[in-house]
Design a protein that fits this description.
By secondary structure, the chain is of the alpha+beta class. 35% of the residues lie in helices and 28% in strands. The protein has 5 helices and 5 strands, in the order βαββαββααα. A 5-stranded mixed β-sheet has the order 4-1-3-2-5, sandwiched between helices. It binds flavin mononucleotide. The site of flavin mononucleotide has 16 residues, from helix 1, strand 3 and helix 2.
Length: 149
């Protein structure tokens, strides 16, 4: 089945734990209802979200997200078809930004918006790869299925 993958970046407006918890709660409820999955990478200076699912459902949810006043400068970075979800088990995962992603200076200098499709996608692929037991067919208890980084 062909799915839509959409990745956008934005700048949080009024970011704190409560705001984030409310966003995630809504996202998890609504997305689960519409079989949309993905993850939200977040930090005070950055939201980077991946959404995957039926095209119409992803578009409808993204239209609401784009109008949300809890962030600004919403910019689509990747929009494409896919047959495989990167986060099939997550209506909306929460991924605090990692040190290997962009620095604050890079974000404020526009590095996220300038990144290529492959660079953006590589961030999400790395997050998946860092999950213990991500190698399909291997039990999670198998040592080589675990990431030591
Ligand atoms: C950074 C960010 C990410 C969001 N992610 C989702 C999401 O994945 N799914 C969702 O339904 N709403 C998400 N929301 C919330 C929507 O913008 C909106 O508040 C929600 O869909 C409810 O809209 P409604 O009250 O018009 O039905 C997100 C909001 C922000 C600021």
């Amino acid at each position: 089945m062909t799915l839509k993958r959409l990745i956008y970046a934005s700048h949080p407006f009024g970011f704190d734990d409560l705001v984030l918890a409310n966003i995630l709660k809504t996202a998890q409820t609504v997305n689960a209802r519409h079989d949309v999955t993905g993850t939200l990478i977040c930090r005070e200076d950055l939201y980077l979200q991946l959404l995957e699912g039926d095209r119409a459902n992803v578009d409808t949810i993204f239209e609401k997200i784009a109008r949300d006043d809890r962030h600004t400068d919403v910019e689509i970075l990747v929009q494409e078809n896919t047959t495989q979800r990167l986060f099939p088990a997550w209506a909306m995962r929460h991924d605090p930004a990692k040190s290997w992603m962009w620095t604050r200076e890079q974000v404020s200098g526009g590095a996220v918006e300038k990144a290529t499709r492959d660079e953006v996608l590589a961030i999400f692929v790395r997050l998946v790869a860092e999950e213990p037991g991500h190698l399909s067919g291997l039990p999670t208890a198998c040592p080589i299925a675990r990431s030591n980084n």
